Amino acid sequence: MIILGIILLILGAVLDIGILYTIGGILVLVGAILWILGATGRAVGGRRHFF
């Protein structure tokens, strides 16, 4: 999710498409939150690990 967000951020900045830039930022933020919660050992959505 973080990688997809970064790709969309880059594409949004290069192609000057605001919606891609916004969606990319949201994906990076959500991915980072899930990554931090998973790293602390907290179960997210009923799962301890996301594969």
TrEMBL record:
Keywords: Membrane, Transmembrane, Transmembrane helix. The chain crosses the membrane at residues 6-38. It comes from the Bacteria. This is DUF3096 domain-containing protein. It comes from Aeromicrobium halocynthiae.
